[in-house]
Amino acid sequence: MCTAATYRTKDFYFGRTLDYEFSYGEEIVITPRNYEFHFRHMGQAEEHYAIIGMAHVAGDYPLYYDAINEKGIGMAGLNFVGNAVYAEVTEGKENVASFEFIPWVLRQCATMDEVRALLAKINLVGTPFAEQFPASQLHWIIADENEAITVESVADGLHVYENPVGVLTNNPPFAQQMFMLNNYIGLSPKQPENSFAKDVPLNTYSRGMGALGLPGDLSSASRFARVAFTRMNAVSGDSEAESVSQFFHILGSVDQQRGCCEVAEGKYEITIYTSCCNATRGIYYYTTYDNHRIMGVDMHAEDLDGTTLTCYPMIAEGQVSWQNGQN
Ligand SMILES: C[C@H](CCC(=O)NCCS(=O)(=O)O)[C@H]1CC[C@H]2[C@@H]3CC[C@@H]4C[C@H](O)CC[C@]4(C)[C@H]3C[C@H](O)[C@]12C
């Protein structure tokens, strides 16, 4: 399972959790403007917008999980197992393999209008990256500072949904996730009034009772409701430190602790990493399961006119900053 979210203060923030039981060996990868993309069915592309994100690099190719470009657009792929169906390669169409989808969009779009125009022409196909990498079944969130959309390729074709809550998890399909939010219409960050029955003496014996009924489990539908509530009600200052801190708290509402989601005998899904991109300024922040200190990689500290990928492995080990003589 995974969760993605957007957040806006003075700048625009975009990120996700990656929840899984093992890692593919991902790192923070900066693709500069002159790196040559060789698209499977669309030929070669030279000059483009610079991209920073989390990717598994295979044969010098960045297989992005989530990324932003230098124009402030963010995009993330999340599992959509059992529902994602990709198209067949069709002569004369813009055939883009699902593993190329993030660079295909981020390399050439500066606005969400451009994203929509591109999506209207795309034929998203299931061409595998390599034999050992069959096409993952994914769906995507794409967003800028003003709006978010969800893209799902299913049996009856490609769907593009407005995403008014700026979040995405996994199954079921997005329209159903949004519908199920109706179940939580009564929830509030304020203390509830007694609307149960006026003649029954009911009290608010604890703070936080306005959101009683918000699901606490790790299922995708429950995480969707929980992160949507948290994201839509989140309040923070607009400085970089306050915004980034708040963003990690939003995704922290759906953090997965080792032991609570067993996917096979003795195998547990955990939040391997959590990212928070400042999409306005091209910065990729992240934490890992054991490293809670926020790490940062700034695309503008690199030569963005270069031709080769720059990779930063995640610092995954935790550190304690001692305040007295311990170490
Ligand atoms: C496993 C992850 C989703 C985690 C998740 O959601 N786990 C809950 C399962 S469940 O939903 O609860 O059942 C997903 C998210 C992004 C994916 C990569 C995207 C690029 C590339 C695409 C290629 O086509 C195949 C290889 C490739 C490296 C992909 C590997 C893997 O698929 C990644 C890491």
TrEMBL record:
Family matches, as InterPro entries: CBAH (IPR047711), CBAH/NAAA_C (IPR029132), Ntn_hydrolases_N (IPR029055), Peptidase_C59 (IPR052193)
Gene3D superfamilies: Penicillin V Acylase, Chain A
Keywords: Hydrolase, Lipid metabolism
Known catalytic reactions: taurodeoxycholate + H2O = deoxycholate + taurine; cholate + taurine = taurocholate + H2O
Sequence ranges assigned to domain Choloylglycine hydrolase/NAAA C-terminal in this UniProt record: 2-310
Family annotation (CDD domains): Ntn_PVA
Pathway connected to this protein: Lipid metabolism; bile acid biosynthesis
Keyword Hydrolase: yes
GO molecular function, one term: choloylglycine hydrolase activity
Family designation: Belongs to the peptidase C59 family.
Protein's recorded name: choloylglycine hydrolase
